[in-house]
Amino acid sequence: MTPALVFKEGPLAGRRVEVDTELIVGREDAGLTIDDEQISRRHAVIRPGDGGVEIEDLGSRNGTFVNGIRIESATRLAGGDTVKLGQSVLHVESARAAATVVSEAPATVTPPAAAAPPPAAPPAAPASAGPRSAPAAAFGTYVAPTAGKRKRGIASRQLGPQLVSFAVVIATAVALVLYFADH
């Protein structure tokens, strides 16, 4: 079964998109364009792999949420996971069960017939592994890295570069006024 995204809310509600190649999701010039002011031009990338999909936020201003938690790096998804991009809410369909990557949203589950043993803790990542390294555990047991340094958005949305640009424009205007006043 090819992994798919089903839009539950937002401008594309009711639409089903199969993920068989890398897919850029955004407001403009993207593989999947969503007309939503809360979504960045290039908001996130969704990649298929190992019977499921992986999503990575591309430095969007409003963020990407998996099962109610904002992601900071590439996160593996599986069937049953919920993704929120702006006003859009997507449900992941896949052959695999819901991921244990990020799980905060309550799920309605019928009690099992027999008590299952508690899940084993995921193996520790090597010391050299960075926040974007591949997981050492099998698919579906990857634990998202702890939020360390926050990824910043594109330069046009940051105050520092805007102030520097504004100062350069003002300085140029003043220099031109002074130059032409003397001539």
Quick summary:
By secondary structure, the protein is α+β, with helices and mostly antiparallel strands. The chain has one helix at 159-182, and strands spanning 4-9, 16-18, 23-26, 32-33, 44-49, 52-57, 64-66, 69-70, 75-77, 82-85, 88-93. Residues 98-111 and 125-142 have low confidence and may be disordered.
Would you kindly provide a written description of the structure presented here, covering whatever features stand out?
The protein is α+β, with helices and mostly antiparallel strands. It has one helix and eleven strands; from the N terminus they run E-E-E-E-E-E-E-E-E-E-E-H. A six-stranded antiparallel β-sheet has the order 2-1-11-10-7-8, with no helix packed on it. A hairpin with a 2-residue loop joins strand 7 and strand 8. The radius of gyration is 22 Å and the shape is elongated. The protein starts with a strand and ends with a helix. Residues 98-111 and 125-142 have low confidence and may be disordered.
Which helices and strands, and how do they pair?
Blueprint: E1 4-9, E2 16-18, E3 23-26, E4 32-33, E5 44-49, E6 52-57, E7 64-66, E8 69-70, E9 75-77, E10 82-85, E11 88-93, H1 159-182
Parallel strand pairs: 3-4
Antiparallel strand pairs: 1-2, 1-11, 3-5, 5-6, 6-9, 7-8, 7-10, 10-11
